[in-house]
Amino acid sequence: MKSIYDYSLSDLENYFFSIDEKKFKAVQIYDWIYKKRVNSFKDMTNLKQVLINRLIDEFSFEHLEIISRLDDVDVHKYLFRLKDDNKIEAVLMHHDYGNSLCISTQVGCNMSCAFCESGRLKKVRNLTPSEMVLPILQIERDLNIRISHIVLMGIGEPFDNYENVIKFLDIVNEPKGIELGSRHITISTCGVVPKILEFMNNGKQVNLAISLHASNDTLRNKLMPINKAYNLKLLLDTIKKYVSKTNRRVTLEYIMLKEVNDSIDNAKELANLIKGINCYVNLIPYNETSHIEFKKSDKERILKFYDCLKQNDVNVTIRREFGSKVMAACGQLRSNYEEGS
Ligand code: SAH
User: Fold this and answer.
1) Active site residue ranges
2) How many C-beta atoms lie closer than 10 Å to residue 208's C-beta?
3) Which whole number is the average pLDDT over 247-252?
4) Quick check: 155 and 89 in contact, CB under 8 A?
5) Which residue in 230, 227, 247, 312 sits closest to 274, CA to CA?
6) What distance in Å separates the CA atoms of residue 196 and residue 126, rounded to the nearest whole number?
7) CA distance 21 to 216
8) How far is the CA of 115 from the centre of ligand 1 (A)?
9) Mean of the pLDDT values across residues 164-192?
10) Ligand 1 mutation target, pool 188, 210, 260, most atoms within 8 A of CB
11) CA of 21 to the centre of ligand 1 (A)
């Protein structure tokens, strides 16, 4: 049985059209599910009983199982069990501007970035749209809050699950449904160039973040194997195209790894590399994990790196650290649960 949460509004309209029902039924159902937050067709009092029976036979409202929730200051980390027993994570962060949810897009990840916990489990499968939508609904209910921002920065590479991610965006964007504005959503990619171009042509106003993490190809090849397929020149040329076509500023993420990519020379090289691109750099303090040998840069070194970028006219911010106590780095919760460490 198909999950009702896999359906965009236009999918549902097509469904009703195919069974000779009026299209507006789709809007009514969206209203019940996403505005009134009802999770059974039986509660949809403006539908006829025959139709209710038919919908019950065809669609499921099944939710995910919340295996655990870890709380820290301003952060809640969830581990969910999927129907096939795979596990995914989602992290809710309270900011002064609202509540932001970091969601996963795949079970495991094939990108094999050297510093990342997620890639220790190779991709098992893509998440379906409903498996990305349900954490939003369930966490809102669990914490009795509304989520204002979504970041696709959990486990997985969103552009390696392109179609389902686009469907997910259609569902959460829908004004008659969850109504999350595109500008409140950020997709982060390690740099899958053909998909960045496809996304550019898709016309969505969603924010794009690129995991750069290195200031030259030698270093990036070591940290991120994707660089061997799409090197820095190609990636940056693609980003330039994206910015000029969409008129939107991109974020470049740069994890600060102690004595790996955090020297002043790296900062100068980075400033030079991105000169003239409408972007801002987000410096990310590395979240150390017990399974990987990289260390986090000292605060002082991060600040020097930051100052150097500023002096070179780069827009730069340092990401606030969340939840090192709750193992907030992608993949940490799942792997500790599986491996019992
Ligand atoms: N695959 C996508 C999105 C998931 S990772 C991407 O690569 O962008 C989201 C971000 O978290 C990426 O910038 C990733 O490099 C970073 N990240 C991974 N492990 C981390 C860690 N231990 N500490 C801090 N950031 C990490």
Assistant:
1) 89, 330
2) 21
3) 96
4) yes
5) 312
6) 18
7) 58
8) 9
9) 97
10) 188
11) 45
Residues recorded for the chain: 341
Angstrom distance (rounded) from CA 32 to CA 43: 8
Structure tokens at 256: 């600060």
Tell me how far CA of residue 336 lies from CA of 118, 271, 329, in angstroms.
Answer: 11, 37, 12
Q: Average pLDDT of 311-330?
A: 77
pLDDT of the residue at 341? 39
Residue 235 has pLDDT above 50, yes or no: yes
Q: Report which residue type is found at 124.
A: V
- Average pLDDT value over all residues in the chain: 94
- Give the pLDDT band of residue 329 (cuts 50, 70, 90): low
Average pLDDT score over residue span 86-93: 95
Report CA(1)–ligand 1 centroid distance (Å): 34
> For 140-227, where are the E strands, in sequence order?
149-152, 185-189, 207-211
Which residue's alpha carbon is nearest to atom 5 within ligand 1?
Answer: 153
